[in-house]
Every structure is written in C-alpha cells, then in structure tokens.
C-alpha cells in the first residue's frame, strides 16, 4: 500500500508539472520552451499565477498521498526509507572482489582475455570468461593426469609424443553455439603451479600458439582443484556443486551408521537434488553395500542437508600418542617388482631411495608414479614424473596422505 501511495503521489506531481508546461505554451512559445526547465517554470508560476495555479494545485494534491505513503513506510521499514532518501540507489553497485587472482596479459583469438574462473579438475585446466552455460571465451588444456601437488610443465614447439591437448572456444554475438579449435603440438606452454590451501593451485602461466591462432597469454593464474568452496575456513555447504552434495552425504552416512569408513558409489548431481524428491544413494559403509532413498534440500540457512537428519555427531577420534622409538636398523633395499616400502624408513633415510622409481597410492585412491627425489622442508615426499617431451610434473605428498608406497626398481 505504501508503495502505491508514493507512486500515485509522484504521478500526480508529474502530471501537475506537465499541465503547467502546457499552460505556459498557451501563454507564449518562449514561456513554453522555458518552462521545460524547472527554474523557468517557477518564474512562470510567479508571473502568471492565475493561469498556472491549476497545474500547481494538481501537483500539490499529489503531495498528500506521497506524504502518507512515506509515513507508512517509515513506520514499518525505516531502513528502506532511509536508503531511498539518501539516494544510495543512484550510486553504481560495487562489484564483489574476484574469487581467484587471475592476471593474464596477451590475446585470445585476437581479442582480450579476462577469465573470471579457473580450475584444474580431472586433469583438465580450464580458464573461462563469462558466466553463462557457454563461456564467452574458454581455454582448456587436457593434461595426462590430475596433479596431486605442485605441477611444473614445459612444452616446446618441436616436442613430440603424448602432449597436452589445447582447445580454444569462443562464442560470437550472433551465434548460439561456440566455435572451437584444437591443437595437439607445435605450441609453447609453461606451467609452474604450487598448492595453496585449502583447494587451489597458483603460479606462473605462459601459452603461445602458432600465429594463425592469434593467441598468446602470460601471467599469473589461480585455479580450483575441486568444486568445493570455503567461507571463513569452513566448507560452504550452500554452494551448488556435486562435490558439496558428496560431502554432505558422506557426513550424513558416517553419523547414521556411526562409522568413518564411508565411500560413495553413486550419488546424485546437485541439479537432480534441487527438485527435493527422493534419490537413490549407493555407498560402501565399513565394507558393506548400502542402498538408500534420501531427499536432499536446503535448510533455513540455505545450506544443503538431508531431510530428517537428526543423527548426532561422531565422537572425536582419540589422539594417538606415538612412543619415541629408536631409528630403525638399516635394511637392504627391497627387491624391485612392486615391493612395499616402509614409509617410516623412507622418512628417516630418504637418501637411500633417491632417484628410485616408486609408486604412491593415496588414501583417496589416487596414484603418483615417478622418481623419488627426497623430502621437502615440510617433510613431504617429492616424486617427479617425466612426461614425454613435455617437461615434468612434481607430486608433493604428506606421509599421512599415503596409504601404500611401492618400489618399482632398484
């Protein structure tokens, strides 16, 4: 009601002003054109009051519903009235800070490239400009494998073998589907990316394609390594992604079955879950297959949750105090052929296994295979993998992340 009163009052005032202009044109052309400007209109009202008072009366009549509407608005929403009167709505809306620090110079298909999002997931490095389903411009580089830690990669135009595939795609203003071009070799690529907590990689990026592609990019990039988002150091459960739903489901199953040994076999996408209907969930809980029908929805805080979830939190894991032990006795190197290494021995005497070909399997089931080069300053195992004609990839693994370490050669 208050909005209608305010709008009605403003319309009456505008109609009164227009009436004054019409009356001014009836008096004379100069007064008519001059009254298009409010100061001249005020002068006309003062000089020709008897003629202009009809329009002034209509404008004054509009003040009544305007004042009543503002009074009603102030009685139940004073903050909104203050915002209207302060004219803050006339100022341009401040843009939120960018999520990722991406600063690239150069050109993409002959045009500027300013990506707002970037990720390295499933071995595919993607930089996108635009937020629609089809990006305005997008660069994808398909790597041989998803890096587990730091990544350093160098490709030269004369390199051969299995190289990363580069794909450019762009959307023309008059097109519904993007155009794309792929390149398998003959380009220059340099990546030097380092992990950044909690789920990012950042570092140097350089790409130069043949001249007919009109693409040369160089600068600093920051990439997500999964589709989780964090807020104040915690996972943002309101973010719409399959990884968010998987995290919510694992937490729910752990609390429901009182077991931390949970792995999802089949989980719905967040788009399917947005319809708030029962969905089939398949999981392994403590080695036992479980098939459930669950409904995912957003709660009052706009966070994803399982409908009817009232299970208590799991008790905290007991802290394990490792007894101080003497360094293990030197042992002979295990025979090659997928022999399991003692991780503690590798930490104590890393030089004994330097430059040996090893394979590390993480607790998440990922595999890092390459030459063991030692421990870094934080005690992480460094495994370097040479890529055919494409430089090398470095894996930095914490001992707690490794489920199995195998020696592949002496």
From TrEMBL:
Superkingdom to which the source organism belongs: Bacteria
Residue span, Biotin protein ligase C-terminal domain: 358-385
Keyword terms, alphabetized: Membrane, Transmembrane, Transmembrane helix
Membrane found in the keyword field: yes
Protein name, UniProt field: MFS transporter
InterPro entries hit by this protein: BPL_C (IPR003142)
Native source species: Pseudomonas aeruginosa
Chain ranges passing through the membrane: 5-25, 31-49, 56-74
Record flagged with keyword NADP: no
């Amino acid at each position: 009601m208050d909005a209608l009163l305010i709008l009605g009052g403003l319309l009456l005032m505008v109609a009164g002003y227009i009436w004054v202009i019409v009356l001014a044109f009836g008096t004379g052309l100069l007064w008519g054109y001059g009254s298009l400007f409010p100061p001249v209109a005020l002068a006309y009202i003062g000089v020709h009051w008897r003629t202009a008072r009809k329009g002034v009366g209509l404008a004054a009549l509009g003040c009544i519903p305007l004042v009543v509407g503002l009074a009603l608005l102030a009685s139940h929403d004073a903050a909104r009235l203050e915002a209207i009167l302060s004219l803050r709505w006339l100022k341009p809306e401040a843009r939120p800070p960018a999520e990722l620090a991406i600063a690239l110079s150069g050109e993409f298909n002959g045009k500027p490239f300013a990506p707002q999002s970037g990720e390295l997931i499933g071995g595919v490095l993607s930089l996108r400009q635009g937020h629609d389903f089809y990006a305005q411009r997008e660069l994808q580089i398909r790597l041989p494998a998803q890096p587990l830690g730091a990544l350093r990669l160098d490709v030269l135009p004369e390199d051969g073998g299995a190289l990363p595939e580069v794909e450019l795609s762009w959307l023309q203003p008059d097109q519904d589907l993007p155009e794309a071009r792929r390149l398998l070799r003959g380009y220059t690529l340099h990546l030097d990316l380092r992990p950044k907590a909690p789920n990012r990689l950042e570092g140097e990026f350089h790409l130069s394609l043949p001249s007919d592609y009109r693409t040369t990019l160089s600068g600093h990039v920051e990439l997500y390594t999964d589709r989780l988002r964090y807020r104040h150091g915690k996972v943002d459960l309101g973010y719409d992604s399959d990884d968010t739903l998987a995290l919510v489901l694992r937490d729910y199953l752990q609390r429901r079955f009182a077991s931390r040994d949970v792995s999802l076999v089949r989980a719905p996408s967040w788009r399917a879950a947005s319809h708030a209907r029962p969905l089939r969930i398949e999981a392994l809980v403590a080695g036992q297959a479980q098939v459930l029908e669950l409904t995912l929805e957003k709660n009052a805080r706009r966070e994803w949750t399982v409908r009817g979830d009232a299970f208590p939190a799991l008790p905290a894991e007991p802290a394990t105090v490792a007894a101080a032990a003497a360094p293990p006795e030197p042992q002979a190197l295990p025979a090659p052929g997928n022999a399991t290494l003692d991780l503690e021995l590798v930490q104590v005497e890393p030089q004994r296994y330097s430059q040996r070909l090893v394979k590390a399997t993480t607790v998440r089931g990922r595999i890092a295979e390459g030459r063991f080069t030692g421990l870094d300053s934080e005690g992480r195992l460094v495994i370097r993998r040479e890529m055919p004609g494409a430089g090398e990839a470095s894996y930095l693994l914490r001992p707690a992340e490794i489920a199995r370490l195998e020696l592949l050669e002496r």
